[in-house]
## 1
Amino acid sequence: MNESRQRVVIVPCSGIGKTYGSVSREAAYEVTEDLRPDTAALVPLSLLVLGDEQARAAVAGSQAITIDGCKLACATKMVKESGGEVAKDYAVLDVYRRYKQFKPQGIAELNAGGQQLAQALAQEIAQDVDGLVGQDAAPYMAPLPHEGGQHG
Amino acid sequence: MPEFLETTVDKFTFKVATDRFYTREGVWATPLPEGEGAGVRVRVGLSDFLQQRSGDIAFAEVKPEGTALAAGDEVAAIETIKVNIALGSPVNGKVIEVNPDMELKPEVINQDPYEAGWLATIEATDWETDRAQLLDPQAYFVVMKAEAEEEAKKL
């Protein structure tokens, strides 16, 4: 990895067993694996909660986009707690209000509406990523945890 | 500002405003100060317990102004992150006003269910008769608390 390249970290909700949490993670995977793999990277919220040093360093050294599954806004809070800058925070419920036609259902496996909502959200985030890396965001981006690893 | 009856079940605290009446399902009704016209204007909304149990509200669709309703007819449908609920009107009458916040920020129901989160105003055709069918705050409090405790057992 080129560590000097600007990257935006995406921190989705870690709510397991929650439909909106699943939407947040699907959107994050879509952005970091398919839409903007070179300029966006996923940092699992669970690692931040556990105090993983590499995860905290990644967040602290980058601009972050958070995706919260509920109003507790754990992702946004933990990024701030970890010293990161939240460039944009999304709440899945607000996104759904903009895409009423995509009603998310399901937990372990999202229904078609949930997948479409995640894709719509991912497209919005991808645009945000483009805007952020186009700016003079951070001159140095810390190594991201579990680079190239599995979903967290 | 209304006064409240309040109970805490598990980690959740529920309030029941004492200045209005309730259906068993948790829809409140309160007459507004006398205005012009023959009917009594009754404002309706969700109880604190109902909104908390239902979860964060994504959409609220209230019957439009002019809709005639019998008590129990659907006055609004809400979609939350958990469920879709049809809310029955607590009174007979006609919808004369819809809370404009329901269109763009229905989350106000979660934030302030007894004040800013009202759903609609209904011109009741016979408020006194309707009121006799509703629960007073103390009676609803008992019903609500029993439901909350039952829900807590499932957690």
## 2
Amino acid sequence: MRHATHFRRLFVLLALAGFAFVSVRAKVVPKDFGTLGHFRASAITEAAAREPRHIGSDACSDCHAKISKAWAEGKHHTPQCENGFGEDLPGRNRPKTPEQLPVRGFFVPKLCNHCINTPCIQVCPVGASYKTKEGVVLVDPQRCVGCGYCVQACPFGSRFLNPETKVADKCTWCYHRITKGLKPACVVSCPAKARIFGNVNDHKSEISQILATNRVQVLKSYLGTNPRTRYIGLDSEVI
Amino acid sequence: MHHFVSEGYVLPNQMHSYWTTMIVLYPYITGIVAGAFIISSLHHVFGKLELQPVSRFAMLMALAFLLFAPLPLLRHLGHPERAFNIMFTPNPTSAMAGFGFVYTIYLLILAVEIWLVYRDRFSEAARTRIGFVAGLLLLVQVAAMRWNVIMGGQMFSKSFRGFLTLHVDVVGREGLLAVGLLLAAPFVTLLVFSRILPLWGSVATFPKRWLLEAPPAHGLLKDFSRFE
């Protein structure tokens, strides 16, 4: 009987402590957290509210006039340019002699795949990564603690820790542009028109036509993340 | 503080933030939390009278360090003000958030237990002293506790001998729940590691690796035993 009383008192105290925790949580956590999912709902509108800056198709050629000119004249066939090898950073082993040059080069732009089964959202410990109703995967910069777990979880290496804001950052498919009816900046600025963005549910859209008439691949399909970013004519070596 | 190093290739996540002193502080603090709680439980749960002088303060110490355990890590990451996010909004699908759940339950039980242990002192203090004076006296009292008893190690060895002939009284002891959580902590750690490190979670490769590594290890052991 004495033990039973003890336990009853203990559980009352535990319930009181739990109540205190829940009331503190209600004060600290934003009100709209969890209304649309395990994330802050107003983060979507904040991401969409960014002001889109004008990106014209001359964005590349403004700075890389030489490369753009070579591409326009059809001379851009060697992989030895900055585009093919990445930025020349210190400490990188750049090929010095012709023998060190690779036989064949691949150029695979690795943007966020905006997967349907996202490993990055699954592992976020604080509910800072989320998916909008359009399927765009975003990061809430106000909740993210910068632990980097999602950076490690992404099989495509699309996420990174922003050195300025100290939180995880990623390609947003220019969510602030596409919600205003604009195309993403990379689609607009690509001089080769290599990137196509559109609604796959609309069967008359350009993207639907291209998906229906081309061989398209996704990166690392064996992982089952079901990416939304697709590549036309991708070599099997780079998947 | 941040050392960003790029390996000069194209993937965005090739920029690393390397850990410094702060990563050492985290296991240090959690070790203090667990150790202080064990010392307190040895008296309150298992009835070791030798630890009575410090058992109450050990509980307070566990609470104080538990509250600030994630702070150094997040200070290093750049957002110390978000240290409680993992406790307030833990994502149920994340392995790392397991710490958040365990910490929260641990914190609640610790708060309840501190209330139970200190309630007589609370009422006494409320009667006789108020505010700052009470806190100051508490600090003086704390400083007067003989910490060298524990640091000396003699008492700890005695209590360790007591472990060998221990009869656990299961029912009616409040601290037992918290001890269970404490025992669950290494398994949560293992779970997190098995998720983070691919080899740990891979059932297929482990027995093969053991089979491959066992013969050379056995040979090495034999070699070392020959030298003796």
